[in-house]
């Protein structure tokens, strides 16, 4: 049984190997080698993006027995988007004085190069931000999103209701409500599709939805909106059949130009991008020709999409210069030479070490959608929304609060709440100074690591700024000890600091020339570090973690919950009457001790949700303490997404109920 599992493992069928090893371990849990290869298979498949501590614990055993230990670690780290550690372990394997085949050495060198590319992109995020489209994705494949602007409608293909058939896709649609997407519903009239021809296109000008049907000779069909409903698909143009259009297609608004991917039906041949044009005089379509210029390569080109002005082509490719899998590239048309220019990788976070397909931009060129099977999604392929961002400069000094010495060779990462796998990363020099570009309007988790890669600071903050890269924010960090200096400044403009500021909010406005730490319902640092204490705010108030003797709640305080908007950590003034009632109760009964329990929905990563929930709880506590209640009588605790009170599958009566703060009684009487 073990021999069969080993054979499958070295064939790199890690999904099947994982299940084989699991069966072996159920019979004999002490099978060390089976556990070792099970963990590798697990972390390369369904365990991607999860902590790998269990595998690292085998370092003393398998790290000495198996010369490939660092090789496997490198691959796992790469799959987790940890390029820095991937490079480190690939290098350890290459430097290892042990017999290695030329094939494995060459493969490792390729992995090493890929990891270097990934590190480059991770450290220089592009000018777009992304997030999973809330309420739309499923645990199955969700592909080919298109936005119908005339109806605020998102359409896409999904295998979520394929009755056990993995390769059956159907069209779903959803409309945008007051604040979120409605629950997607199927459009049965549009039929079924296989993965190979799972592609939608929409022409907003005349409200047509285009689909490709390989079963009917590879022809394009379209559906129209009539009385709020999509019609049964009709063939678009019988004359187009001679163009041999394939599933990855794009059709322009004038409906006289089709760009598509094809390998001429030959297995093993790479896909290239072709186009066919309609002759206005004869209504005939031209024979397909390769796109002129540098778009096509010896690799695969798929998912073409042309900008509204026709000058920029977006497509997916696994060509050299990719981050991993299929990446989205852009190419600009040269009017003088009538050719397409050298493709440019769209960078991170649009691209990842996994696959990005079906990139489609709205007419404004500022936002759009794409599909990706990257880690921390809901299913295999998920639908992501992207939008253009403005960046500002941020700089500062990281200091050891105990010794007063600068933090040398420390790494600082700012993780945006909308997509935690992204980070804006920089390193400190001899003076402890760092500097980077950062999103101008975002909630972040800031992490600082010392030279030995130990996390010494973990905290959340929100930045609101304008002015683009002409604006420079200054954010200083003190690790341990007390911080008394101002946390934020902006260069080249007048700075006004309030006498009392008890939040970690930075709001900068170039027009008003004012920077201030402000209290919008009270949001403070909620951090932890090696000292157990987070840095203080500008006013000197700290967010030290206080232990308490109360282990669990006695009962829920009979008061409504406080609810929050998505990712927000400050409460609406509408809840002031409710908080006044809580104040009144606590003033009447001075023995009452409460827990303020913060919660989130499952939108975003677990780590950022834990921070957001803690900040929600802290904002309520700060409000109550500021009105005379002793801090020792209020325990602020965040539970992240671990305790939902409703389904996270929809916004209304679902996620909106999970973004809450509850009041729990933990002690009555002394």
Question: What descriptive keywords fit this protein?
Answer:
11 helices, Neuraminidase, six-stranded mixed β-sheet, Immunoglobulin-like, 39 strands, 670 residues, Serine Threonine Protein Phosphatase 5, Tetratricopeptide repeat, globular, alpha+beta
Explained architecture:
This protein is α+β, with helices and mostly antiparallel strands and 670 residues long. It folds into four domains: 2-122, Serine Threonine Protein Phosphatase 5, Tetratricopeptide repeat (Alpha Horseshoe), CATH 1.25.40; 128-388, Neuraminidase, CATH 2.120.10.30; 391-516, Immunoglobulin-like, CATH 2.60.40; 555-667, 2-Layer Sandwich (60s Ribosomal Protein L30, Chain: A), CATH 3.30.1330.60. 20% of the residues lie in helices and 30% in strands. The chain has eleven helices and 39 strands. The strands form eight sheets. It has a six-stranded mixed β-sheet with strand order 26-25-28-29-33-34, with helices on one face. Strands 2, 3, 4, 5 and 6 form a five-stranded antiparallel β-sheet that branches. A hairpin with a 2-residue loop joins strand 9 (219-226) and strand 10. The longest helix has 21 residues, at 102-122. The model is unreliable at 482-552 (pLDDT under 50).
SSE blueprint:
Elements: H1 2-10, H2 14-27, H3 32-43, H4 53-56, H5 59-65, H6 69-79, H7 83-95, H8 102-122, E1 128-132, E2 142-148, E3 153-158, E4 169-175, E5 185-186, E6 192-193, E7 200-203, E8 208-213, E9 219-226, E10 229-230, E11 234-235, E12 249-251, E13 257-262, E14 272-277, E15 289-290, E16 301-306, E17 312-317, E18 327-334, E19 339-340, E20 344-345, E21 356-361, E22 367-372, E23 382-388, E24 391-400, E25 411-416, E26 424-427, E27 433-439, E28 441-449, E29 455-464, E30 472-475, E31 477-479, E32 488-490, E33 505-509, E34 514-516, E35 555-556, E36 562-563, H9 576-588, E37 593-598, H10 606-625, E38 634-638, H11 651-658, E39 660-667
Parallel strand pairs: 24-30, 24-31, 29-33, 37-38
Antiparallel strand pairs: 1-23, 2-3, 3-4, 4-5, 4-6, 7-8, 8-9, 9-10, 9-11, 12-13, 13-14, 14-15, 16-17, 17-18, 18-19, 18-20, 21-22, 22-23, 24-27, 25-26, 25-28, 28-29, 30-32, 33-34, 35-39, 36-39, 37-39
């Amino acid at each position: 049984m073990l021999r069969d599992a080993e054979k499958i493992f070295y064939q790199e069928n890690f999904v099947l190997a994982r299940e084989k090893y699991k069966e072996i371990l159920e019979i004999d849990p002490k099978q060390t080698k089976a556990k070792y290869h099970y963990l590798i298979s697990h972390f390369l498949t369904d365990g991607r993006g999860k902590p790998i501590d269990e595998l690292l614990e085998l370092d003393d055993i398998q790290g000495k027995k198996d010369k490939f230990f660092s090789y496997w670690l490198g691959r796992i780290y790469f799959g987790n988007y940890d390029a820095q550690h991937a490079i480190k372990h690939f290098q350890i394997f290459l430097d290892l004085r042990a017999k290695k085949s030329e094939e494995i050495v060459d493969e490792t060198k390729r992995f090493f190069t890929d990891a270097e590319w990934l590190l480059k992109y991770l450290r220089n995020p592009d000018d777009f931000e992304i997030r999973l489209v809330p309420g739309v994705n499923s645990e199955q494949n969700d592909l080919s999103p298109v936005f119908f602007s005339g109806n605020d409608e998102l359409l896409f293909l999904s295998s979520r209701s394929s009755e056990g058939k993995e390769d059956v896709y159907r069209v779903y649609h959803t409309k945008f409500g007051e604040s979120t997407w409605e629950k997607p519903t199927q459009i049965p009239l549009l039929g079924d599709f296989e993965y190979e021809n799972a592609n939608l296109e929409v022409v907003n000008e005349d409200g047509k939805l285009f689909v490709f049907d390989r079963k009917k000779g590879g022809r394009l069909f379209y559906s129209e909106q009539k009385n709020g409903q999509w019609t049964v698909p009709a063939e678009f143009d019988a004359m187009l059949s001679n163009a041999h259009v394939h599933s990855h297609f794009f059709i322009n608004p004038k409906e006289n130009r089709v760009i598509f991917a094809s390998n001429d039906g030959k297995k093993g041949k790479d896909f290239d991008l072709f186009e066919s044009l309609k002759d206005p005089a004869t209504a005939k379509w031209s024979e397909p020709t390769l796109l002129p210029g540098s778009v096509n390569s010896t690799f695969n080109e798929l998912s073409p999409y042309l900008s509204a002005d026709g000058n920029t082509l977006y497509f997916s490719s696994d060509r050299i210069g990719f981050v991993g899998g299929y990446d989205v590239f852009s190419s600009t048309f040269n009017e003088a030479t009538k050719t397409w220019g050298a493709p440019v990788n769209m960078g991170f976070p649009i691209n990842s070490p996994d696959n990005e397909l079906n990139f489609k931009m709205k007419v404004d060129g500022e936002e759009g959608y794409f599909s990706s099977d990257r880690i921390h999604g809901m299913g295999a392929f998920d639908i992501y929304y992207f939008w253009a961002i403005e960046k500002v400069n941020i700089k500062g000094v990281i200091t050891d609060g105990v010794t007063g010495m600068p933090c040398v060779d420390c790494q600082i990462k700012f993780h945006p709440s909308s997509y935690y796998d992204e980070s804006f990363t920089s390193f400190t020099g001899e003076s402890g100074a760092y500097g980077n570009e950062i999103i101008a309007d975002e909630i972040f988790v800031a992490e600082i690591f010392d030279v030995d890669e130990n996390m010494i600071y973990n905290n959340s903050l929100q930045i609101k700024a304008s002015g683009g890269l002409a604006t420079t924010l200054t954010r200083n960090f003190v690790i341990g000890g007390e911080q008394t200096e101002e946390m934020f400044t902006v260069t080249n403009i007048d700075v006004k600091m309030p006498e009392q500021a008890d939040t970690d909010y930075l709001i900068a406005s170039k027009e008003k020339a004012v920077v201030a730490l402000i209290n919008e319902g009270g949001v403070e640092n909620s951090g932890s570090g090696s000292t157990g204490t987070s840095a203080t705010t500008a006013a000197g108030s700290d967010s030290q973690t206080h232990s308490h003797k109360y282990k669990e709640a006695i009962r829920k305080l009979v008061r409504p919950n406080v609810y929050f908007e998505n990712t927000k950590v400050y409460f609406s003034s509408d809840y002031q009457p409710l908080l006044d009632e809580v104040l009144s109760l606590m003033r009447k009964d001075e023995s009452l001790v409460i827990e303020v329990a913060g919660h989130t929905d499952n939108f975003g990563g677990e780590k950022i949700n834990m921070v957001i929930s803690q900040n929600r709880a802290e904002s309520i506590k700060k409000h109550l303490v500021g009105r005379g209640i002793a801090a020792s009588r209020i325990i602020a605790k965040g539970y992240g997404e671990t305790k939902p009170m409703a389904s996270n599958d929809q916004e209304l009566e679902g996620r909106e109920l999970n973004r809450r703060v509850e009041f729990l009684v933990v002690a009555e009487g002394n």
